[in-house]
Structure of YuiA family protein:
Amino acid sequence: MNAVTQSASKTCSLCSGKGYIQLLLGGSETCPSCGGTGKADRSFSSR
C-alpha cells in the first residue's frame, strides 16, 4: 500500500511544489491553488 505524506515544508498538493501544472493538450499553466509559489498557502479540510 502506498501512503502519501506531506513534507514539513508544506508544498502545494495540486502542483507538488512546482508552481505549475501540465495541461493535457500540451503546455503548462500557473497553479491556481498556490498561485505559482509552490507552497500550500491555504488549508483545506476534507469532510
Remarks:
- The two ends are 23 Å apart (CA to CA).
- Residues 10-34 form one domain.
- The chain has a mean pLDDT of 80.
